[in-house]
UniProtKB/TrEMBL annotation:
Residues 17-37 form the Flagellar basal body rod protein N-terminal domain. PROSITE patterns: FLAGELLA_BB_ROD (PS00588). Its main location: other. The lineage of its organism: Bacteria, Pseudomonadati, Thermodesulfobacteriota, Thermodesulfobacteria, Thermodesulfobacteriales. Keywords: Bacterial flagellum. Residues 87-132 form the Flagellar hook protein FlgE/F/G-like D1 domain. It is found in: Bacterial flagellum basal body. Belongs to the flagella basal body rod proteins family. It holds the Pfam family Flg_bbr_C. GO terms for biological process: bacterial-type flagellum-dependent swarming motility. It comes from the Bacteria. This is Flagellar hook protein FlgE. InterPro entries: Falgellar_hook_FlgE_sf, Flag_bb_rod_N, Flagellar_basal_body_rod_CS, Flagellar_FlgE/F/G, Flg_bb/hook_C_dom, FlgE/F/G-like, FlgE_D2, LlgE_F_G-like_D1. Gene3D superfamilies: Flagellar hook protein FlgE.
Length: 467
């Protein structure tokens, strides 16, 4: 090889050690970079094969960089308590895109809610890339079906369609001596349609109309002439809101008679809808068919806007006429009148408040100021297991798939390849202790190769001085 060959061989060692130190320095510099995946240098010897008729021998020409490989081992999971901070435990990459539809992959889960137009927000990272997802109910997806999911700034109001109510009727109230039904005592032409003393108790039931306005229904209860019966009447607290017209029954919409058994459970129920505010008589009007409806329903008319409301008192009439009861069934007991449970499904208009929950399965929930939430989207992850070398680092914690490479898209979950942890971030997978050891070894290799160059140079100088 000669002295000049020695210089070039040691020079290759200096170059590879320098590149190794650059890789190590990059790893150390990104020790605190979210989702960073460290790199590993891989050296190989540089040589040529010389042959003759007798033997084959290898001539060493130094070293070279064989590859700089990215290590995709798991980084530490660090809690942040910010719901839109996401960490992947296990395999997978978040899929993000730019406005032009370019697809990128990352383990950096630092996302935030950003305004994208006058009506919507979206989850983006600091580069403005959208986090991609699918419909909240989707089980599978592919790259073609994933898209940025927009979060509405406003949630439209919803009129109440169901009231769930558990009340206790007081069995100690004396029965009526003469038959004096509630509906006969109701008169909307008076200042107080149903006067005190004409009923035993009243519950106020707040609801929402179709425009999101809060309204109040009154549920009146009164004993009948039978010891095991109560009659009820549902009416608006303000009869003037009734858009059906004028009459004695303006504001009244539902009348019913409940029969209770020995244990206090409802054993029979008859209900009539009051459709005409000017006239109503259960004796001449057929009760609603609860074997078909299951529960009593009535059409509420508020200033011309109608909505159908189902009143659920904790029982349901089956097609064969039998009655089944829920855990919140209303009863007749020797207790004061009381409301034990109330729920209605209406709400006012809501303004976007926050992203509070992102589940391990990637389900994103948006919460609004009206106390409601909607499922916005479901995050899907990309898996490159077995061919991670097809990913290229392009900076900013992003990877780009090489041409022709299609990842496996999967829904995260506790039993899947990877799961999502909300309120946490994945740290760098760099092992600082190992990197410092590598740095010392590379430094010694660099120094040794420099010493080899200096020694060869001195030998060459000595040779030239002697000739």
């Amino acid at each position: 090889m000669g002295i000049f060959g020695t210089i070039y061989t040691c020079y290759s060692g200096v170059c590879t050690a320098t590149i190794g130190m650059r890789v190590t320095a990059d790893n150390i510099a990104n020790l605190n970079t979210t989702g960073f995946k460290g790199s590993r240098y891989e050296f190989a010897n540089e040589s040529v094969i010389a042959t003759n008729e007798v033997f084959v021998k290898e001539k060493g020409l130094g070293s070279k960089i064989k590859d700089i490989r990215t290590l995709f081992t798991q980084g530490s999971i660090n809690t942040t308590d910010v719901p839109t901070d996401l960490a992947i435990s296990g395999k997978g990459f978040f899929i993000v895109s730019d406005k032009e539809g370019g697809i990128f992959y990352t383990r950096d889960g630092q996302f935030f809610v950003n305004e994208v137009d006058e009506n919507h927000f979206a989850l983006q990272n600091s580069l403005g890339l959208y986090l991609l997802g699918a419909d909240p109910t989707a089980k599978t997806a592919d790259l073609g079906s994933l898209k940025p999911y927009l979060i509405p700034k406003l949630m439209p109001p919803k009129g109440t369609s169901q009231i769930n109510l558990q009340v206790i009727f007081d069995s100690r109230k004396p029965i009526e001596e003469t038959d004096d039904p509630l509906f006969r005592n109701y008169n909307a032409t008076r200042e107080t349609p149903l006067e005190n003393g004409k009923y035993d108790f009243v519950w106020s039931l707040p609801i929402y109309d179709n425009l999101g306005e809060k309204r109040v229904l009154q549920l009146y209860a009164d004993r009948t002439v039978n010891p095991n019966e109560y009659e009820i009447l549902v009416a608006l607290d303000d009869p003037t809101l009734d858009g059906r017209g004028e009459g004695f029954y303006k504001g009244a919409f539902l009348y019913g008679i409940l029969t209770f058994g020995a244990s206090g459970d409802i054993t029979d129920a008859r209900f009539w809808e009051i459709t005409n505010p000017s006239s109503f008589d259960p004796a001449t009007q057929q009760p609603m068919d609860l074997t078909a409806l299951g529960k009593p329903q009535f059409n509420l008319n508020i200033q011309g806007n109608t909505q159908t409301i189902t009143l659920d008192l904790g029982f349901q009439v089956q097609p064969d006429g039998s009655i089944t009861r829920t855990s919140y069934a209303s009863k007749l007991l020797a207790n004061p009148f009381v409301q034990l449970y109330y729920n209605q499904d209406g709400y006012a208009q809501g303004i976007f408040d926050k992203i509070e929950v992102i589940t391990e399965e990637g389900l994103i929930k948006a919460w609004y100021t009206n106390g409601q939430n909607i499922d916005v989207a479901k995050i899907f992850l990309a898996d490159f297991t077995g061919y991670e070398d097809s990913l290229m680092k392009i900076g900013s914690n992003l990877f780009l798939a090489k041409g022709g490479v299609t990842p496996f898209i999967f829904a995260p979950g506790i039993y899947e390849r990877g799961r999502i942890i909300s309120g946490a971030l994945e740290g760098s997978n760099v092992d600082l202790a190992m990197e410092m050891i590598n740095l010392i070894v590379l430094q010694r290799a660099f120094q040794s190769n420099i010493r080899g160059i200096v020694t060869a140079d001195q030998t060459l100088e000595y040779f030239l001085n002697k000739t």
